[in-house]
Amino acid sequence: MPDARSLMDRYASYLPITDRTPRLTLGEGNTPLVRARALERETGIPEIWLKVEGQNPTGSFKDRGMVIAVAKALEQGARMVLCASTGNTAASAAAYAARAGMSCTVVLPAGQVAAGKLAQAIAHGARVVAVRGPFDAALAVVRALAEQGEATLVNSVNPDRLEGQKTAAFEICEALGEAPDALFIPVGNAGNITAYWKGFVEAARSGMARQRPRMYGYQAEGAAPLVSGKPVAEPQTLATAIRVGNPASWKGAVMARDESGGAIDSVSDDEILDAYSFLARCEGVFAEPASAAAIAGLRKRVRENGLGSAKRVVCVLTGNGMKDPDRARSLAGDIAEVEATPDAVRAALSS
Predict the structure, then answer these.
(1) Mean pLDDT along residues 152-172
(2) Matching CATH topology for 7-60+161-330 and 62-159?
(3) Which is the most buried residue in 26, 33, 157, 290, by most CB within 10 A?
(4) Does domain 62-159 fall into CATH 3.10.310.10?
(5) 99 contacts 230 by C-beta, under 8 angstroms
(6) Where are the domains of the chain?
(7) At a CB cut-off of 8 Å and minimum separation 6, what does 164 contact?
(8) Mean predicted confidence (pLDDT) in 244-270
């Protein structure tokens, strides 16, 4: 049975919290590992698990780190939090700020945020401003505002965020009884791959696991600065959550890759969309397009290089598919509208 305690209470000894830290929670963490049988059959890998982070309270992995960042900000007397976002961070920051009785300001790259994510931030009462330019421009703005004392910055440049996000690695080790042989994960601002690696290192050090997985991070081809080795001025991809041209956690991602013996590579938007559809239609898991980069990456790795002796793999699905409903709708044609009779419905289905 899953541990009913809050994420902070479950992992207090691994987190930068004190007795004075407010025990803020919306029920984050304890997300399921779902066996991917169809993907196992396709790839030939004996055991593949999906870490379904879309089942966090606001529908993405961001909640793990945000609960720590906002709680620490509240402990330190802050009354406002601030973030730049491609969507998931905005939704999470706004929700936890509301829970904590704080205000939240979100700066977005204009026209680059999925409708479901923007709706969440607005619903939770965030003040939202869109700037002309990519995510990296929005991040530069909020970093400058935070340095001027406007509010506490809760992007992944805040170390408390990564501390919270590393708990997903602990959960994987606890659920499987060991760390997997390999972990596949989408990479945008690169905080999550950095956090997972930190978690696996700490799990091995504490005896929670005997091994550490090889880390495989995947960016979209049009937003792949870690692959090219240089920032991308105008990143382009339909996977908006990873549309980042200059990752804030660049060094951490490279460290995770190098220390684990893994790789960071890119996949095309077509590969992402195919994996996105496969997940929903063959595994019954609805994840946002950026999440599907992990699946596309696994398929590409197996096809081009293989995975050697790896027998157990985990793919991290970072966000729920309802974050980007327009993308799912675009995959279907027009919905037939007919008279309310069995014959009319039967005819529509057969056409």
Answers:
(1) 95
(2) yes
(3) 290
(4) no
(5) no
(6) 7-60+161-330, 62-159
(7) 7, 15, 64, 65, 66, 67, 68, 69, 195
(8) 97
Give yes or no for a contact between 183 and 214, defined as CB atoms under 8 angstroms apart: yes
Q: Is the pLDDT of residue 292 over 80?
A: yes
Lookup: tokens for 259: 């220390």
Whole-model pTM? 0.93
**Residue whose C-alpha is closest to residue 215's, from 234, 235, 231, 199:** 199
Residue 18 buriedness (CB in 10 A; 0-12 / 13-18 / 19+): exposed
d(CA 180, CA 49): 9
Token pair recorded at residue 294: 């992990």
User: Is residue 252 predicted with pLDDT exceeding 60?
Assistant: yes
Asked if residues 237 and 264 have their Cβ atoms less than 8 Å apart, the reply is no
Q: How many CB atoms lie within 10 A of CB 27?
A: 13
CA distance 110 to 131: 5
d(CA 292, CA 73): 33
Domain 7-60+161-330 has CATH 3.40.50.720: no
How is residue 214 written in tokens? 């090889």
Q: 79: which residues sit within 8 A by CB, 6+ positions away?
A: 102, 103
Tokens of 40: 């196992």
Provide the 10 A C-beta neighbour count for residue 61.
32
Which H, E and C letters describe the chain, residue by residue?
CCCCCCHHHHCHHHCCCCCCCCCCCCCCCCCCEEECHHHHHHHCCCEEEEEEHHHCCCCECHHHHHHHHHHHHHHCCCCEEEEECCCHHHHHHHHHHHHHCCEEEEEEECCCCCHHHHHHHHHCCCEEEEECCCHHHHHHHHHHHHHCCCCEECCCCCHHHHHHHCHHHHHHHHHHCCCCCEEEEECCCCHHHHHHHHHHHHHHHHCCCCCCCEEEEEEECCECHHHHCCCCCCCCCCCHHHCCCCCCCHHHHHHHHHHHCCEEEEECHHHHHHHHHHHHHHHCCCECHHHHHHHHHHHHHHHHCCCCCCCEEEEEECEEHHHCHHHHHHCCCCCCCCCCCHHHHHHHHHC
